[in-house]
Amino acid sequence: MPRFSFLEWPVVRQLRDGDVLGRGTSVTSKRTRSITPRTAEADHVAHSVCPYCAVGCGQLVYSKDGKVTQIEGDPASPISRGRLCPKGSASEQLVNSPRRITTVRYRRPYGTEWEDLNRDTAIDMIADRFLEARRNHWEDVDDKGHALRRTMGIASLGGATIDNEENYLAKKLFTAAGAIQMENQARI
Amino acid sequence: MANADCIIIQGSNMAEAHPVGFQWVMEAKSRGATIIHVDPRFTRTSANAHKHIPTRAGSDVVLLGALINHVLSNDLYFKDYVLAYTNASTIISEEFLDTEDLEGLFSGYDPETGTYDPASWAYSAPGEDGKVADASAFEGQEGSHWTAGRAGAGEAFGSGGPPLEHGIPARDETLQDPRTVLQILKRHYSRYTPEMVTEACGISRADFDYLARALVENSGRERTTCFAYAVGWTQHVGGAQFIRTAAMLQLLMGNVGRPGSGIMALRGHATIQGSTDIPTLFNLLPGYLPMPKAGAHDDFQTYADSIGRKEQKGFWAESRTYAVNLLKAWWGEHATAENDFAFDYLPRLDGPAGTYQTLMRMLDDGVDGYFLLGQNPAVGSANGRMQRLGMSHLKWMVVRDFSMIESATWWKEGPEIDSGELRTEDIGTEMFFLPAANHTEKAGSFTQTQRLVQWREKAVDPPGDAQSELEFLYELGHRIREKLRGSTDPRDRPLLDLTWDYPVDEEGEVDPEAVIAEINGRHETGPKVGQPLSGYTEMADDGSTSGGCWIYAGVYADGINQAARKKPGYEQDEFAHEWGWAWPMNRRILYNRASADADGKPWSERKKLLWWDETAEKWAGPDVPDFPADKAPHDPGDVEAGGAKGLAGNDAFVMQSDGRGWLFAPTGLVDGPLPTHYEPVDSSIPNPLYPQQANPTREFIQDRDNLNAPGMTGDAREEVYPYYFSTYRVTEHHTAGGMSRWLPYLAELQPQLFCEISPELAAEVGIEPYGWATIISPRAAIEAIALVTERMTPLTISGRTVHQIGLPYHWAQGTHAVVEGDSVNDLIAMNLDANTQIQNSKVTACAIRPGRRPRGAARQELVEELQRRAGLQLDTGDQLLTAPDFPEGTERQDIDLQSGESIEETFDLPRHESGGEDQRTTGTEED
Amino acid sequence: MGLLSGPEENPAADSGWGHDHARKGFFTDTSICIGCKACEVACKEWNRNPQDGDLKILGSSYDNTGSLGANTWRHVAFVEQKKDRIEEARESGRKLVSLGMPTIGPRSGAAAPGGRAGEDFTGVDTTPPDTPEFRWLMSSDVCKHCTHAGCLDVCPTGALFRTEFGTVVVQSDICNGCGTCVGGCPFGVIERRDDGTVSPKEDRGRVQQEVPNKGTANKCTLCYDRLVEGEEPACAKTCPTTSIKFGDRSDMVEQAHERVAQLHAQGMTEARLYGANPEDGVGGTGSVFLLLDEPEVYGLPPDPQVPTADLPHMYRTAAVAMGGMLVATALAFLGGRR
């Protein structure tokens, strides 16, 4: 603990610093004197892109100890020049929302509540159901004998907020499975 | 946009929906540009424009058509540009008949199917009288990037005749031949007068003159005008044609391919552009290759030829190459020349399989499982009630999202549980909610609205069970393949032969760079084996190269992730070529050959972009040329070779098979070669231009729960749904609310659903400012707080007052978000544009009354009470052909909607639960 | 001149910081505000301020946060006006100019902000548009960081202080929540943060947000914690149209004067400045605004006065009174001896 010093008495500082009315340097607290922005305390800054509309504003994602601490505009972006709209400005809240669900939830047929489910089990169950639905509604040929080679038992909707790489895998997997009913926001 | 001298924003509320993009409009404004906002509502965009012109939603073709008429009849168009770069001088087949001749229809209409045969819209070939149709280029919307607009074009494939042999049709450079496109245009738009604009749009003569003057004065060699639109144009029946009208106008004014010109499609989602380029859409494969169609594309060559033939001009001539590379990327060593590169592994379409058709199949128990990847259709799609009912027919559903969105909770707390229509205990749908990683928790690329691919670095790991789509899909694919291992069923070969061996990092996660490298493509054999492709021109059609999406070839050139380049904008020129990567080939302005004149000289010093450098014998300028780099301006093109070699030195529109910008679209659109005004389906205003009331090709879905307002067929004495509403976004929220209603900082800014109405309408129906209002359509009833405001203007249309109501659609019923409200999309019917399969959500007839809506079952009773009063039938509003004297010897399908079946009979129609297949038709047939 | 009222060059220097710190401030140009409220959100996000209000539509156009307060440190007002009101605003603005508001000749072409050298504007319609039938004003309000700050002058604990940037900031570790400053602010900006504003629908078991600095006075810090690292305030950084500008206060005032002159040249005589006058009741403000109508229209006081402005006078009067009383007392004693 630092030695107590009369020199740090406010009234002494007030007279010494010329802050005669005691409204400036003489009243600053220790916390005030050592204040730093959390952007300066971040241990990692990722260059990212806003997930909302299609303008594609640059974002700087500051994180510390594996947790996002601040998201703000990236001044280097020629698209947005560091600026963000209210949604982009709120994206730290999107990331760290206490309302976010971070575990798998499962509702059995005719169930009235959500239940817990291990993620590994869930994906395995989905794979089984995928193949069953594919079989149930498989169409080899149309009524004129033209090849169809498809299933109508599986549909998907989504894609406008997920990455190009993810859309690519989705289209590749579903098309190979013969599941043609794929749609996304681009048509809605 | 900052380089524009005039910006016309129509069909978009840019300041609210794209605030950060709007900085460029404000910058143009500070440089002296004129900003005009044409919109039914006075919005935050209007507040920052020089002028707001209130208009009637859905009447845009009248206004834009009148501008076309204005510039054509007064010789105000950019003649040198039009002659050099558009098909204005092209001569159209003698068999073509215009809406002028056919009461609002074009030649080729088949009233039985509600579709057109476009054969008669074809170009005339030189020295021939016969027609030569052009089935090659389906890039029908020059200058626009609303790629979903091509969706229906994929559907229309195979409908044209043989392609143009060498892309040089008959032309009359004097533009005098009555069959030239320009003359056809003049006749077609002669009805579109300023007086008609006043009558149909409610826009005064003074406002029209202001707009016309601003456009004309800010176009030409020295100046450019830019248009901006968004879903205010697309979400209409006929929306693709709205955009085309603007594209045609911009071509006539020389505002395509030049700085500060063009049509900006303002898209709404982070990578909605990417998700059409690399589509999760039923009708497309990556790079706008169509999904093959049963019967029409049974073999690979037929399929490839239907996209573009080798001998035609432009880059679609290589379509077979692009398809080979895609198939090679997907099926690797199993895709060989001998098996047509596994073309038969692709499933086939036989009609639209869009989200609304899928919904109808769900209601018929024809779909078992449904994946939602960051989408909330219970709130975001038209006719939300049917969406939720459809979900109750599924066997299982996978919802991947951040929070408990309404599409995950409908079985527990949806409006239908409230009303007693559904009971949780009776719903058999098995639900999987899988938490998704957000944009900071995974690396990957988004493609923004100007085709710019931008890479995101990963900041942190996802929490708990949350994982990326990439991880989930990879894992799902992996397990499906494991479960099928050893299968001898030929239908499993495409899955088992799929290339699915992506490298994983030490934590077992797929490397997204490996995926973008596959999308980019690589050399499979030869001296460069394993090396990434530098661009699509390096693609071969013999299987020696592969590439998952040809237009993205080059994004991983030199093994460097070009999308991840982050050289600051302030260290570069305004094109910022070293920030991210734009497809194709990092070009920032498409069709930029048109920024120079036919001789290769800039149109003006002020609007200089590209020019032909005589000494270097190359195109020079700050942007990457969208043209063969060393093709001289007067090069005639090697017509025998086709493809890029076939292009002449002034064929600026390199994707079109004639190298020209299309003022007249001989193919590619299913509802006509020229945009024509039709009234919205719900409109009770007679089409002021033609006897044909509404778009004759629209797609509708007949269902007890998807009834239409009577429109023109209603009883004029008592209009049950006398007002029209449009849905839209506000700045403070995002789409169906999944990413905004859960956030307190956004929720508090717009906490409740509201409707915007004029003081006149408020007085007419007795609604107090900031009091409750109930809005009722033939599908649903909702309640909203009334914002009574001068920002809404009643319009006088065809002698009657038309009131428009504004309704943002971000809210929904549920207990998980910070704020809740009724879901506006419940009000909307599924009436689809036949080109795009996009629903109309901008003009819907409704009733409005003061007070809150009834609770419980009484809510739907109110809806049905109004349905009865309006005398709605299953087929109300579904009559496609209304031109009484439509020739071609077909009888008009007369459906008397007011007599015939009694109301009670209609209301005894079975609902989905009791198997109403026979009562429900999907598609375009007249019932 | 200047410790408690009137013009003052550098308030930081008078608070012990010496003269090497430039005074920082905002220039909020409401003529280019698009009302997106990014400033409100970026401010709350940076400062971790809790959500405000009871999640109901307030009944003032698109504004649902109401006013500046303990939690909302940037606030966007929305004002819908008809033609007659616009004409009045234009007229009152014109009068302000004829009353001696500083003007600068019309600027256009290369000299215009953002304009490119050599730009030719001939042919551009520079005549003012006809008075529009209707307009929708948007304006982002913020703490004024007054030259003579009432809140600071009345604070009995030293919790409020004048920073080296000339701004006025609350130190929540010192503030005891007495609330004296609340009455001391002529703009009604500073407010005590209470505990129960966060989640009005608690019956649903919603997740509570952590509320920092409960029970203390709160207001805009002009992002003091960012300024110390040379970063700009969150609101100014995020503003999509640069309606909110940040910089040395003297530059801000100069830009503001240039902008008002530019708008007047374009016929928008309704433009006027707020807070740029060093002779006003608070000695001018650190946050300068360009408004398009009377301040009252935006909910701003037309003639704010720092309550301590009269303090010297009051002390003098008190001293005279005290002296008088002393004299009277003395006289009384003297008289008593008689």
Automatic annotation (TrEMBL), chain C:
Residues 105-114 have a biased composition (Low complexity). Residues 24-53, 134-165, 166-195 form the 4Fe-4S ferredoxin-type domain. InterPro entries: 4Fe4S_Fe-S-bd (IPR017896), 4Fe4S_Fe_S_CS (IPR017900), FDH_Electron_Transfer_Unit (IPR051555), Formate_DH_Fe-S_su (IPR014603). The chain crosses the membrane at residues 314-334. The keyword Endoplasmic reticulum does not apply. The keyword Repeat applies. Residues 1-20, 99-126 are annotated as: Disordered. Keywords: 4Fe-4S, Iron, Iron-sulfur, Membrane, Metal-binding, Repeat, Transmembrane, Transmembrane helix. It is found in: Cell envelope. Pfam families: Fer4_11 (PF13247). PANTHER family: FORMATE DEHYDROGENASE, NITRATE-INDUCIBLE, IRON-SULFUR SUBUNIT. This is 4Fe-4S dicluster domain-containing protein. It comes from Brachybacterium halotolerans.
